[in-house]
Every structure is written in structure tokens, then in C-alpha cells.
Amino acid sequence: MTKRILIVDDSASIRQVVSTTLQGAGYETIEACDGMDGLKKLDGSKINLIISDVNMPKMDGISFVKELKANPAYKFTPVIMLTTESQEDKKAQGKAAGAKAWVVKPFQPQQMLTAVEKLVM
Q1: pLDDT digits (tens, 9 = 90+) for 23-46
Q2: pLDDT one-digit tens code per residue, 67-112
């Protein structure tokens, strides 16, 4: 069964790189341009993993993860934060919100796939 991954990032080029990388590894991807859009894409269908940026307009990644975790259908969906932020306090906020991994941009596609494979068991 194909695993579905939601990519939430306000950068179209980042979404494209992540999507291409994941599709190349056999995953199905859904894209959202910010946290609000990401929440709209959560329609109750099964999502195996979410990859989210931190700094986005309308709703940032940390707020998005908090909202996501409040939804019983997605409470246990693993989240990877993909961001230029590498400060420990941001990572702590992400972890507190429920993020399982933190990948810093620019990322290597293989590094991303390794993180995804660990979480999409």
C-alpha cells in the first residue's frame, strides 16, 4: 500500500524538491502552501507522515503541528519539521508541539528519505 505524505511549505520550489524526492522513492504526496492550507488538506483520509516548514505566513509550522495533534484522526501522525531554523529553542518548541524529527535546509534528499523511512513504518 502506498504511503501518503503531506508536505507543508510556503516555498513552491522546496515543495517540488521534497515531492519529487518522495515520489521517486514510491510515496504519494499532497502539497499545502501554509499551515492553514495544510489543515484543510486533512480531510480524514489516511496520511502516514507530514513534513512541515516552520516559518510560514498565516500559520507557522509549530502552530500547525499543535492544531494537527489536537485532531484525534491525526494525533499519532509523525511530523518532520523541515526548516532553516537550527536553534535549540525552536527545536524544543517543535518537539513540545509533537514533531518527531528536525531536518535543516538545505537538505540532502537521501537524508530526508532516511528520516521518512524511520517514521513511516
Answers
A1: 999 999 999 999 999 999 999 899
A2: 999 999 999 999 999 988 788 999 999 999 999 999 988 888 898 9
This prediction has a pTM of 0.94
CATH superfamily for domain 4-119: Response regulator (3.40.50.2300)
* Ranges of each domain in the chain: 4-119
- The pLDDT, as a whole number, for residue 12 is 96
Contact 5, 29 (CB under 8 A): yes
CB 15 within 8 A of CB 112: no
Is the CB of residue 102 less than 8 Å from the CB of residue 83?
A: yes
**Reduced 3-state DSSP string for the chain:** CCCEEEEECCCHHHHHHHHHHHHHCCCEEEEECCHHHHHHHCCCCCCCEEEECCCCCCCCHHHHHHHHHHCHHHCCCCEEEEECCCCHHHHHHHHHHCCCEEEECCCCHHHHHHHHHHHCC
